[in-house]
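Have a close read of the entry that follows and walk me through the local backbone shapes. See right below:
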Amino acid sequence: MTNLAEIESAIQKLPPGEIRQLVDRLQEYLENEWDKQIEADANSGKLNDLIARAEADIDAGKVKRLDEIIRNT
């Protein structure tokens, strides 16, 4: 299989249980890629400004506690 059309065709031939397994594996792959990207961005300093703004908001009391948000208080 060398292109998306061939892959899509092959997926359509799979039994439902194997399609679910494929989806799970793809989701895990995407999650791992996301984690790698976040780690790379953090290590390169790309997130420093966002972190600093979040810390400033926390210090200024502009951030609600998670339990307040969950309880909608």
Notes: The mean pLDDT is 94. The radius of gyration is 21 Å.
